[in-house]
Amino acid sequence: MPSSTLADRLDRIVLYQVYPQSFADADGDGIGDLDGLAGRLDHLSWLGVDAVWINPCFVSPMRDAGYDVADFDHVDPRYGGDAALDRLIAEADRRGIAVLLDLVAGHTSDRHPWFQAAIADNTDHRYVFSDRAAEGFEPVPGPRGGFYKPNFFAFQPALNFGYARPAADEPWRQPVDADGPRQNRDALVDIIRRWYDRGVQGFRVDMAASLVKDDAGHVETAMLWNGIRSRLDATHPGRVLLSEWGDPARAVPAGFHGDFFLQFGGDSDGWPLKSLFNDNAGTVHEAWNQAEVWAGADGTGDAGDFVAAWREAADAIERDGRGGVVGLPTANHDFTRMVSGPRDAEQARAALLLVLTWPAMPSVYYGDEIGMRYLPGLAPHEGSSLGPRYERAGSRTPMQWGEVGDGIHPSRYLPEDPDPARPTVADQRDDPDSLLSFVRAAIALRRTDPRLSARAEVEVRTTAYPFTYVRSGSLLVALNPSRTPRTVTDAGGRLIHGYAARLSGDTLHLDAFGCAVVELDQTPAAAPAASDERTRA
């Protein structure tokens, strides 16, 4: 492992997200497992990533693909059990790759022993119970009677972390310092510490903003997570907590080392990320009603709202003073892939380069490095469906390895992309013009050039087509995800990475879907506009 801690390097790392049941299968049962992931760590090492985040792998009935945990202290047998995780951590350590797990903090499965005990004991307040029917509550399936509050699906009872405000007509509301909430806070700390003791370097926390109920402004939620952060830092300094909050401006001051822009979260319900990447061709919520997207061939979107949200988050993180970061994903298990609908792998290059050069912590979703597509038309599987068009299975299909010849089997958790021309690691690895080679080179640039740190300066020149910005005063990034060629003036220098891009004197030419990183000869005193552009201050 590197001598510095993961928390020390958070501004420089590249994160890679693995959906374990879909990644690689070592035992041949058709389900991806942790030994399969361990067997493919050389791919991650070759790609250049620093840390791997693994979606939930704890014991579970898998009604929500592992987000319904029945035992926080053991790895599910379908992933190889605890010994498989120990082997994975050992192999990852040898390669300098940190392992992060996924913690479902706000609820359990209804089969968890805690819930089974609570529904038989009316003095147990680990969950939220009501003696009478109430909106959003479900009947208790045990001798206790009454009703319980779910946190997501009905089979995921909410752990009781208290309510921020009492209500006379809702007697089930307990204060955050009641015995049940205290018990659950202590349990969270103990669970995390036990896995830290086994070599885990951090957690991504699911639904992190959901713990304290009716919490306007997330004031009590922030107190909860800051308290947990302090306790963990005291015993395991250097480990990291990343949140699924979708609002970095609030989440990092609330105690997390980083938070991702997501397809939900914040006052705008995830608009900063959706404005960049949601093309209404993958996971689509009927309420979104989105007409324009920046990463679209028509060139009708704009990255300005994303930039403004990032700036707000960066300012809040700077005020917090603990060195947190904004996270920017290529996709995730709940959101459409970069390649979806009409947007193909060529068109996605500019968007991928944005993720890897913007002042944020990049997270590469497995398969995005080769241009795996969102696969439409799949049947719901293990709780994947959230609505008529919000089908997450299409973003969870098996990693497309091709013929790599190492004895590790492909996953059969979901159907593989049936397209005979589907991209694979084997086909792209030795091709210098492939998307995989392009992403690998961008990751190498990100990791070796301190000007691309998440904390390094950025000067945004233009936010539409092309989207242009200068990192640390001397590194120009120009991105054209549209089909219309564009030019950038005052771009004289050396082209160090790109696609469909060329320099002619001081002018950078971007063909359709072109993108570039240019080492500038000098930075102009006044930022010029690019052609066909809407300029924002």
UniProtKB/TrEMBL annotation:
Gene3D superfamilies, A to Z: Glycosidases, Oligo-1,6-glucosidase, Domain 2
Span of domain Glycosyl hydrolase family 13 catalytic: 17-446
One matching Pfam family: Alpha-amylase
GO function term, MF aspect, one: hydrolase activity
Domain of life of the organism encoding this protein: Bacteria
Key words of the record: Hydrolase
Ranges in a coiled coil: none
Region (Disordered) residue spans: 396-431
Record family assignment: Belongs to the glycosyl hydrolase 13 family.
Protein name: Alpha-amylase family glycosyl hydrolase
Organism: Microbacterium gawkjiense
